[in-house]
Amino acid sequence: MKRFLIGLVALFAFVGCQARNDVQNKLPNVVFIYADDLGRGMLSHEGQQIVKTPNIDHLAAEGVRFSNVRGCMFCAPARASLLTGYHDCHADKWKITSAGVYKKVFTGNVTADAVSQALEKQVGNSNTSTITMAEVFKKAGYTTGQVGKLEWGFAVSFEEMKQHGWDYYYGYLDHVMAHGFYPPYMFENGNKIEIPGNTRQDCGKTLERETPETFKNRWNMEGKKEYSQNLFLDKMLAFIRENKDRPFFLFHPTQLPHGPVAIPEVHPDFKDDKRLTQIEKEYASMVKMLDDHVGIILKELKKLGLEKNTIVIFSSDNGHEIYYSQEGRILKPVRNMQTGEKFDNVSTKFYSELGGDVFNGNDGMAGLKYDNWEGGYRVPLIVKWPGVTAENEELDNLVANYDLLPTFADLLNVKLTKKKDGLSILPLITGENTAIEHDYTVNASMYGGAIVTKDGWKLRNYYSKNIFQLYYLPDDYKEEFDLADKYPEKVEELKAILKKECNEDLANGYFSYQKFILPGVKVQP
């Protein structure tokens, strides 16, 4: 009997392993949903108390959730890092163009082709000299599509989209235009597509801070008929249907919930919620729409019989940001609402309870978008791969957004000819090796660089003040206790590594628009 039971267990183990291998050997579709300024604390499976996100929670319940992930401190470097596989402390891996140039097309004085050509001339081949995420999929025979706030910007040319490997794209080529949700036109495979009923050059963008005048302007719907996210959803569903019989990669860098706040209507969940002000209800509705759209995509995959052969990934570019500031509630620049003092980002820093964030969007961590506190760049990452990933598994391995490209290359057996900063986390996803992680990750910010080690040490640099702060995150989730004076040797050790990763110049970890953003292009009429 004992031999029989042992044999039965071995048989079940073999069958389970064989089934998993069969799934892995078939080229899976990949759908990657990339939120914009979504703090980890805005997800209900992470503890969010006001906004319920059942569809994203469903992904976490049926897949692997990574809890120790670093994105970047804001959108442009985050997207560049994600799509190239490099961290953002280098000085020479990509260029970021100035935004707003495609708004010139609105007047009719210049054409979209002229804008695109001017951008292409300015950037040259600096953004196409390394393999990018879509190119990895192209090399493996996939059809690739990107729908949303396209590339890393702040403005991108038609040629760059093509060179980066996108068979299909639809959305904003200009990130300033993407700060409004009612664009007069989008771009689809190099063509300008007019949006009937949307007639505002500013795409319906309003000021962030809530006042009676801001509220009035926000809800003045003249020239604002079609909401961008609904257009994106239709295009994504069409892409999935058109490519259901061949392997595809769909990347959706959504605008949600980046502000200024704009939503066609307040979600029923929040209409009568007395905990929230009007603008907070609208912001919550943006997060809710993001979750609803995730659910619609999942439903479509199931309807088409693609669910079991599709990897679905959910993440965000950076940490939480405040787009619902209001007198007496929460203000920007953020400050201690009890004392009125602005945080100096050395001895005082933003926490939800001090700054007045009713949502606790940074999940109790210090800081917000642009910071090198944990709340500035620690992001969610969920991977669901039916038949491969364990269900409802949480991993705290140290990983980064720049790991996704090497992971896809590993998945598809695509050889990378240039070394990337990222590592493949495919063995973590499949469960084949749960020990894989970085020795350390590095990040730039508006204050300076930061390094986090796999054993939990963190060094934070405030570059302009030549300040280095040391934290031990396993015992100090909120970064309250600076240990730099107690462990000077650890400071020097981590400083040396950070400097090396910054190409021997710590200034490369200190992001400034003047240094890292190209000047605006001149477009000939």
Automatic annotation (TrEMBL):
Annotated signal sequence range: 1-19
CDD domains recorded: ARS_like
Gene3D superfamilies reported in the protein's UniProt record: 3.30.1120.10, Alkaline Phosphatase, subunit A
InterPro entries to which the protein is assigned, alphabetical: Alkaline_phosphatase_core_sf, GAG_Ulvan_Degrading_Sulfatases, Sulfatase_N
All residue ranges annotated as the Sulfatase N-terminal domain in the record: 28-414
Keyword Methyltransferase: no
Keywords: Signal
PROSITE patterns: PROKAR_LIPOPROTEIN
PANTHER family: SULFATASE (PTHR43751), SULFATASE N-TERMINAL DOMAIN-CONTAINING PROTEIN (PTHR43751:SF3)
Name of the protein described by the UniProt record: Arylsulfatase
Source organism of this protein record: Draconibacterium aestuarii
